[in-house]
């Protein structure tokens, strides 16, 4: 084993150990007492059920991460990457198509494993706790659609990256950066109208009282909104959510039908105000800029390492190639990705507090946002006492109890 292999192996094992430790700490942080802030919405049975749900999902996470780690190590040290490379080369294609075949073979192997865990999660755990509404037909169709999108959208962009890296010389990383940036912006524009409807129905909001309340609010904060939809989230799960997507005239706010069913109009307006807050505070734009800069850094570093023979030796490759170099660099780059991810997680949690503040100050109704958060946590069986280390590693949102206490400190003028 050379230095590249040791760096990647150590990080893979460290990443697994940190994730496992965080999961165990999260389970040990479970407390018997229900926080007093939730006493008016939760009951003891629901609270106990949330702890059982946490235990079940954590155990599945530990098992799946252990299996995936074992498969990766066996595949790696048994020469699996070189074996798949020989299969791809045996098809007789040129470099770019061979690279696409290589990624397709590896993706198929990965999906075979991950699909098993997804089936268990959906039809055993989510079913046991009353969340699952997905039929086997919907599950299979979702997988087919995802695979088709990967081929239709992912194939050309990966093929383009492989082509430029193989033919464009020292400035290839710049062309790749520019091309992927344009692709990401394009997807952000078309996803709400072309891609998301492949998986869910987006219907114009029929509840006129709610629609008028939302439109009155968006007008009051100078946020013209034409696209307000109800999404059939109940097609797959009884969990509730809402989200903002798109840019310009294509932007839309979607409320899950399960959310509309379980919340009052003031609570729903508060949730919409929170989503508008992300836009008004430029969180979406900031995240996009950070993602684009991150891409530039990644492609630049890729250009420095993609041809290093030691990287191919670390994975027992008989022949070097652009596509294998791209894959192996991704494993080498993982520590940087993790550190950046931790920073982005901290930024995301900060942004959630700011969006809560925006919602409360613009609606003038902090209790509506608090009640919405309480009901969401109850209906989704949220963990009310997550361990700080687990939050640091995995949470994009602050714990719900901390959000509520932060809202309670806001002064409304």
UniProtKB/TrEMBL annotation:
Residues 204-410 form the Peptidase M48 domain. It is an enzyme of class 3 (hydrolase). This is Ste24 endopeptidase. The chain crosses the membrane at residues 6-27, 60-79, 99-125, 146-166, 172-195, 284-306, 326-347. Residues 26-201 form the CAAX prenyl protease 1 N-terminal domain. Its main location: endoplasmic reticulum. It is found in: Endoplasmic reticulum membrane. The active site is at residues 275, 356. GO terms for biological process: CAAX-box protein processing. It holds the Pfam family Peptidase_M48_N. Keywords: Endoplasmic reticulum, Hydrolase, Membrane, Metal-binding, Metalloprotease, Protease, Transmembrane, Transmembrane helix, Zinc. Binds 1 zinc ion per subunit. The lineage of its organism: Bacteria, Pseudomonadati, Thermodesulfobacteriota, Desulfobacteria, Desulfobacterales. Zn(2+) binds at residues 274, 278, 352. Belongs to the peptidase M48 family. Its cofactor is Zn(2+). Its EC number is 3.4.24.84. InterPro entries: CAXX_Prtase_1, Peptidase_M48, Peptidase_M48_N. It is a multi-pass membrane protein. GO terms for molecular function: metal ion binding; metalloendopeptidase activity. It comes from the Bacteria. Gene3D superfamilies: Metalloproteases ('zincins'), catalytic domain (3.30.2010.10).
């Amino acid at each position: 084993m050379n230095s590249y292999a040791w760096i990647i192996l150590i990080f893979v094992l460290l990443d697994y150990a940190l994730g496992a430790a965080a999961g165990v700490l999260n389970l040990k942080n479970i407390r018997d007492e229900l926080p007093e802030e939730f006493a008016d919405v939760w009951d003891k049975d629901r609270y106990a059920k949330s702890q059982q749900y946490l235990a079940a999902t954590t155990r599945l996470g530990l098992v799946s991460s252990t299996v995936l780690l074992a498969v990766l190590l066996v595949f790696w040290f048994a020469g699996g990457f070189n074996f798949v490379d020989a299969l791809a080369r045996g098809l007789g294609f040129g470099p770019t198509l061979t690279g696409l075949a290589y990624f397709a073979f590896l993706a198929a192997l990965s999906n075979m494993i991950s699909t098993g865990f997804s089936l268990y999660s959906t039809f055993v755990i989510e079913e046991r706790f009353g969340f699952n509404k997905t039929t086997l037909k919907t599950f299979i169709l979702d997988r087919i659609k995802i695979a088709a999108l990967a081929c239709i959208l992912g194939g050309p962009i990966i093929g383009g990256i492989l082509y430029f890296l193989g033919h464009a010389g020292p400035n290839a990383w710049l062309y790749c950066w520019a091309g992927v940036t344009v692709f990401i912006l394009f997807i952000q524009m078309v996803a709400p109208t072309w891609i998301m409807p492949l998986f869910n129905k987006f219907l114009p909001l029929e509840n006129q009282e709610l629609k008028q309340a939302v439109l009155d609010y968006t007008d009051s904060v100078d946020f013209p909104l034409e696209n307000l939809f109800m999404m059939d989230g109940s097609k797959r799960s009884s969990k509730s959510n809402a989200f903002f997507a798109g840019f310009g005239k294509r932007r839309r706010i979607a409320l899950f039908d399960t959310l509309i069913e379980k919340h009052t109009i003031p609570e729903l307006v508060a949730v919409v105000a929170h989503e508008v807050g992300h836009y008004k505070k430029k969180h979406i734009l900031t995240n996009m800029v950070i993602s684009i800069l991150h891409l530039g850094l990644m492609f630049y570093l890729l250009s420095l390492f993609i041809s290093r023979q030691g990287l191919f030796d670390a994975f027992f490759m008989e022949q070097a190639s652009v596509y294998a170099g791209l894959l192996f660099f991704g494993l080498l780059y993982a520590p940087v990705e993790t550190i950046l991810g931790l920073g982005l997680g901290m930024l995301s949690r900060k942004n959630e507090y700011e969006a809560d503040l925006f919602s409360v100050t613009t609606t003038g109704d902090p209790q509506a946002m608090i009640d919405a958060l309480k009901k969401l946590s109850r209906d989704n069986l949220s963990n009310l006492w997550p361990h700080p280390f687990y939050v640091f590693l995995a949470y994009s949102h602050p714990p719900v109890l901390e959000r509520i206490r932060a809202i309670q400190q806001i002064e409304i003028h």
